[in-house]
Write a structure and sequence with these properties.
The chain has 80 residues and is mainly alpha-helical. The protein is 79% helix and 0% strand. It contains four helices and no strands.
């Protein structure tokens, strides 16, 4: 879409008219890059919370907890 806008603006001879076209075309073309809507924000927040809950369950599981304790124990017992 940007190629089409640039091509259209290059063909206009009058700089004042090109500025008016740029003002009308650019906001419409960049509107999709302004951020998330409220529903997208809510879904993103829910997904982040779900991921955090899964990560918490994995980290606090017995196998991972034991592995982390052994790594920390080995690091603290290292000879310098």
């Amino acid at each position: 879409m940007w190629k089409t806008i640039r091509h259209t603006l290059r063909r206009v001879r009058c700089p004042r008219l090109a500025g008016g076209l740029r003002a009308r075309l650019m906001p419409a073309a960049s509107r999709r890059d302004r951020g998330m809507t409220t529903s997208e924000y809510a879904m993103g927040t829910i997904a982040a919370c779900a991921f955090a809950a899964v990560l918490y369950k994995v980290i606090t599981s017995g196998a991972v907890s034991g592995a982390l304790e052994s790594v920390i124990g080995k690091a603290l017992d290292a000879q310098f």
